[in-house]
Amino acid sequence: MLATQEYRDRVKQGRKIEQEIIETMRQNGMKISNPSSNDDIFKKVDAWFNRDGERIGIQIKFRETGSDLLFEVYDKFFGFNDPNNKIGRDLQGDAKLYAVKLNNQIVMVDKAKAVDAINEMIDEARCNGWSESNSCTKTLYYESDNQELQLKLQHDPSDGRKKMIAYIPKEFFNNIVTIGG
């Protein structure tokens, strides 16, 4: 499983899969260009989608298991309002679209809808607590647009740090673009 590999190996394998996803998008008629190093590092853009002359940033992910779209909310989490928390990559940057390879298909959604729901879930957990808690994880179950979303405080499998992840089903999103599958 990629999540338990050493950092350099994960990055190398992740970039390879990212390029495969980009190539699949191109093969399906999307005008996709690769980002510069600065775009990737500072704007958190993994690819640019050129639509009608407009350049739209895309974040690209893949899931080895499961069918929800995962959004890294906090890369490091020490507690609500803790100044040492580190915002997750998925909530930073200029990307407007979020593309995830799930099994044999690529699902692309509007990132703004996810960010709005994630902010609602964070407020709910902060104000009313977690729905479920055990020694390893804390989970908030949240309903929005007739879909069950989850916000989880869990340990990163690679190094054990606490991080916060949102699990959002693809059915939550409007205007889903599906490629393959």
Q: What would you say this structure looks like, in words?
A:
There is one protein chain. This protein has helices spanning 7-27, 37-42, 111-128, and strands at 32-33, 47-51, 54-63, 69-76, 86-87, 97-102, 105-110, 132-133, 138-144, 147-155, 162-168, 177-180. By secondary structure, it is an alpha+beta fold. The strands form 2 sheets. The chain has a 6-stranded mixed β-sheet with strand order 1-2-3-6-7-12. Strand 8 (132-133) and strand 9 form a beta hairpin. The longest helix is centred in the first third of the chain and has 21 residues, at 7-27. 27% of the residues are buried.
Tell me the overall shape.
globular
Q: Between the first and last Cα atoms, what is the distance in angstroms?
A: 22 Å
Query: Sheet with the most strands?
Result: 6 strands, mixed
Order of helices and strands: HEHEEEEEEHEEEEE
Number of helices: 3
Estimate what percentage of residues fall within beta strands. Answer: 35-45%
For the largest beta sheet, what order do the strands appear in spatially? Answer: 1-2-3-6-7-12
Mean of residue pLDDT values: 92
Task: Specify the helix fraction band.
Answer: 10-25%
Cα gyration radius (Å): 16 Å
Low-confidence stretches: none
How many DSSP-defined strands? 12
Give the helix/strand class: alpha+beta
